[in-house]
Amino acid sequence: MESPPSSFSTFRSYLRALAQTPSRFAHRAPSVSSSYEELSWVKSRSGSNMHKSLRWYDLIGLGIGGMVGAGVFVTTGRASRLYAGPAILISYAIAGLCALLSAFCYTEFAVHMPVAGGAFSYLRITFGEFAAFLTGANLIMEYVMSNAAVARGFTSYLSAAIGIPTAKWRFTAAALPKGFNEIDLLAVAVVLTVTLIICYSTRESSILNMILTTLHILFIIFVVLMGFWRGDWNNFTRPMNPNSPSGFFPYGPSGVFNGAAMVYFSYIGYDAVSTMAEEVRYPIKDIPIGVTGSVVIVTILYCLMAASMSMLLPYDMIDVEAPFAAAFSGRWEWVSKVIGVGASFGISTSLLVAMLGQARYMCVIGRSSVVPAWFARVHSKTSTPLNASAFLGIFTAAIALFTDLNILLNLISIGTLFVYYMVANAVIYRRYVVIGITKPWPILSFLCLLTLTSLLFTLSWHFAPSGSSKSFLLGLCIGLATAITLIFRHTVPQVRKPEFWGVPFMPWLPSISIFMNIFLLGSLDGLSYVRFGFFSGLAVLVYVLYSVHASFDAEAEGFLGVKNGEMIRESTESEEDPNHKV
């Protein structure tokens, strides 16, 4: 049977396709795939397979490397000085718990469907192609922006470590506008070097990450021990200025939670580990240990760092920009150099892990035909997504070459939190809905009510005037969210039980994750939402002008078999990938 002509074969064909955009959008946007298809012939579009070479200790190393960058050396001081005081220790524990809840959601999907697409694949089998593409496109852009920022940050920390001013590493191009005129060749060199490494081999990339992460952890342990040795336990409760609020909780519970919202961004990075699922030798055993284990270890490290810093100085004396380096300045100046070296290792590992993750996201997006299938190719010799890795590496290097760090920092974080929110929704939806068998409206109604209640809590927290009325409103929101979840728990039965590993206490833990991610989204500034709106609009434009037609053609050619409205048989859901080992 002859295949229908492509929407892009001629200009006239494309115009004809554009005229059919509304009907094609209605058909393809909500279309879902099944996990069996993602594990079989959708994955086969890459040609060669990614080599299964990773174990649980590799995943723990990648998780720690992805999370523990240089940011913790900055956010700890800012959150302690401005919000939490010595209770920054509790802030990190709360943020770690929130990260662990999100990690549980990722783990359930990654164990059930060990493919390289991470959140894109999880949303594609639950909420459909358009929701997956919108979140995936935002996530890719955020990865690129944050990696460019990390690369430029590497120049700054390396300069501090070896005592050469940052200006010596950069030169100014007078013809370019301010903010884009400081040329950073070292940042470009770092990005291109990492790109070559991840193109060559995932296994060797993991080994390099393990070495650098071990060195970075040793530097962190050194800083912690120095803090406990040189510090004063009285600093946990006594500020330097007698007029400053005193005690372990100088700004009360609200300060602790505001501090948790700020330091939570130090945990971003564990989601990249889920994109490595296709290369894990024993997914059912290794992924839960790797993902959750890395979050737990990082939480312990962060809490120890927070306690060490609180002992070194009273919270009202902490330097907001460089808390650890400033605490050791003067007599212990050499320790500041050590911190600079350790931060450089942290930047290297976080860049390596993030660039591994972004390439695998793009590879699987290419498999789904919403971007050119060229991105989906896996090289037969290296067993890596070579095309996606090289393209995104060059793109990241180009941005790192020109763009100022402050501009880049204003463009990141919101996309990742939005994806965490979506994955928590997806794990609940998937447990309670089987397409063609159960009605989705009770579950969608619950998720919408929970979101609205969480949003009301967040707005009240940030904008309601302090007093008993604010406390009542916040308590009311928590009570409503609890009641909604309790009613849903006892009235809507689960129709799907995880075969290997699942989020415990369903739907409570994912519901708390939804609540906390909305709260954290509320802590971002307005520029983040402008960025998110701009890139979301750009993603919609790409989907309407290209992606929906490409996926429509792929379905007609037999590459995408699930159509909107068809029932996905449970028999296909229970079939396993031949390489899905226990």
From TrEMBL:
<feature type="transmembrane region" description="Helical">
    <location>
        <begin position="56"/>
        <end position="75"/>
    </location>
</feature>
<feature type="transmembrane region" description="Helical">
    <location>
        <begin position="334"/>
        <end position="357"/>
    </location>
</feature>
<keyword id="KW-0812">Transmembrane</keyword>
<feature type="transmembrane region" description="Helical">
    <location>
        <begin position="249"/>
        <end position="270"/>
    </location>
</feature>
<feature type="transmembrane region" description="Helical">
    <location>
        <begin position="408"/>
        <end position="429"/>
    </location>
</feature>
<dbReference type="GO" id="GO:0015171">
    <property type="term" value="F:amino acid transmembrane transporter activity"/>
</dbReference>
<feature type="transmembrane region" description="Helical">
    <location>
        <begin position="153"/>
        <end position="171"/>
    </location>
</feature>
<dbReference type="GO" id="GO:0005886">
    <property type="term" value="C:plasma membrane"/>
</dbReference>
<feature type="transmembrane region" description="Helical">
    <location>
        <begin position="384"/>
        <end position="402"/>
    </location>
</feature>
<feature type="transmembrane region" description="Helical">
    <location>
        <begin position="500"/>
        <end position="522"/>
    </location>
</feature>
<dbReference type="InterPro" id="IPR029485">
    <property type="entry name" value="CAT_C"/>
</dbReference>
<dbReference type="Pfam" id="PF13520">
    <property type="entry name" value="AA_permease_2"/>
</dbReference>
<keyword id="KW-1133">Transmembrane helix</keyword>
<feature type="domain" description="Cationic amino acid transporter C-terminal">
    <location>
        <begin position="501"/>
        <end position="551"/>
    </location>
</feature>
<comment type="similarity">
    <text>Belongs to the amino acid-polyamine-organocation (APC) superfamily. Cationic amino acid transporter (CAT) (TC 2.A.3.3) family.</text>
</comment>
<dbReference type="InterPro" id="IPR002293">
    <property type="entry name" value="AA/rel_permease1"/>
</dbReference>
<feature type="transmembrane region" description="Helical">
    <location>
        <begin position="207"/>
        <end position="229"/>
    </location>
</feature>
<dbReference type="Pfam" id="PF13906">
    <property type="entry name" value="AA_permease_C"/>
</dbReference>
<feature type="transmembrane region" description="Helical">
    <location>
        <begin position="87"/>
        <end position="109"/>
    </location>
</feature>
<feature type="transmembrane region" description="Helical">
    <location>
        <begin position="470"/>
        <end position="488"/>
    </location>
</feature>
<feature type="transmembrane region" description="Helical">
    <location>
        <begin position="291"/>
        <end position="314"/>
    </location>
</feature>
<feature type="transmembrane region" description="Helical">
    <location>
        <begin position="441"/>
        <end position="464"/>
    </location>
</feature>
<feature type="transmembrane region" description="Helical">
    <location>
        <begin position="121"/>
        <end position="141"/>
    </location>
</feature>
<protein>
    <recommendedName>
        <fullName>Cationic amino acid transporter C-terminal domain-containing protein</fullName>
    </recommendedName>
</protein>
<feature type="transmembrane region" description="Helical">
    <location>
        <begin position="183"/>
        <end position="200"/>
    </location>
</feature>
<feature type="transmembrane region" description="Helical">
    <location>
        <begin position="528"/>
        <end position="546"/>
    </location>
</feature>
<keyword id="KW-0472">Membrane</keyword>
